[in-house]
Specification:
Layout: H1 27-37, H2 46-53, E1 90-93, E2 105-108, H3 124-136, H4 140-144, H5 158-165, E3 171-180, E4 183-191, E5 197-209, E6 212-220
């Protein structure tokens, strides 16, 4: 059996064979003679067409959800959604400014309108603003103060991550779409010091503790219409 993706049958015409004349009514022998003289057609298996049609694969590009690193590509590929905590975020080129509508919940240093949520611990949204503020100020202790101690984020070395992930001059704006009491969908727009912006679509879950709201998990979010 061939190890190739597909096989091509050898269709080299066979030399004509000398055959004795037959009576016109000898139909069976005449058909056999025609079969000898007619070369077989080349057959290509379905696998050949499939191999040719599937030659281009999309490259999936991921960056850390909580260790955000600026990218150099203006159009990164889409990422498949995941149900578990993953060190990746969905990235799309930032083509529009964040909404200036008063009803939009937003906060940051580079929002198109005024921030409507302050840093704090009285709600999940406030805890997210506290996290992002500490993150972009490269404050490792501030980040750890607002994440659950049993979460994957608590095990990160923020002192090393933050200077690279949020270099001085980086600006940000986060908008919120609450999904439940303990879950919020966010669009985080980060603009690097060179002026390039990317949007990170995330789902963030948290819980209320004795010291206020804390973050448990940050996962990528892929919107069907994004």
């Amino acid at each position: 059996m061939s190890s190739k993706w597909f096989e091509l049958e050898d269709f080299t015409p066979r030399p004509e064979q000398n055959v004795d004349a037959v009576e016109p009514n000898d139909v069976a022998f005449e058909q056999e003679t025609l079969a000898i003289k007619t070369p077989q057609k080349k057959r290509v298996s379905t696998g050949a067409f499939l191999a040719g049609a599937g030659g281009v694969l999309a490259v999936i590009v991921g960056v850390s959800v909580w260790a955000v690193m600026p990218t150099n590509s203006a159009a990164d590929a889409q990422v498949e959604p995941s149900e578990s905590e993953v060190p990746a975020a969905s990235i799309v080129a930032a083509t529009t400014e964040p909404s200036t509508e008063p009803s939009v919940m937003r906060a940051g240093t580079n929002c198109a309108g005024e921030s409507t949520i302050d840093a704090g611990r009285e709600s999940l949204e406030e805890a997210i603003v506290t996290f992002q503020t500490a993150y972009h100020e490269r404050n490792a202790d501030g980040v750890l103060a607002v994440v659950a101690q049993d979460s994957a984020m608590a095990a990160e070395n923020w002192a090393e991550i933050l200077p690279l992930a949020a270099p001085e001059g980086t600006t940000w704006c986060v908008t919120f779409s609450p999904e439940s009491d303990t879950s919020v969908a966010t669009d985080l727009t980060i603009t690097d010091p060179a002026g390039k912006s990317v949007i990170y679509r995330q789902n963030i879950t948290g819980a209320e503790s004795d010291s206020g709201w804390i973050l448990h998990k940050i996962t990528e979010r892929v919107d069907e219409n994004a």
